[in-house]
Prior knowledge:
This protein has helices at about 5-25, 35-50, 65-70, 75-80, 100-110. It is an all-alpha fold. Helix 4 (about 75-80) crosses helix 5 (about 100-110). The longest helix is centred in the N-terminal third of the chain and has 23 residues, at about 5-25.
Amino acid sequence: xxxPLLIHVAVLLGLTALAVSTAQSxxxxxxxxxxxxxxxxxxxxxxxxxxxxxxxxxxxxALTPARLADWPDDSLVATILHGRPGTAMPGWQRFVTEAEAxxxxxxxxxxxxxxx
Length: 116
């Protein structure tokens, strides 16, 4: 490869890495307060029925910040929306949007709020 082409490729790779990094660290849109409360209830009750009421594990794995820290957000969002074939994990896309699933993932990674 000639030098100008190498520089061009390096710049494109750097910009792509920056875009991916920014996209993964971007905070998902905030649902309105009433919807946030409904989502907290959904996670605590419905997800908690398998993942434990304290989300520390049960039939399903723990959903604690330590357990989820190394998982990419987009992978966790996909799991919430589409489930895990061959497991008891159902998809929830009929009940939550992709943005709401992203909000749930961000909350889980921070330590999920208690029910009010």
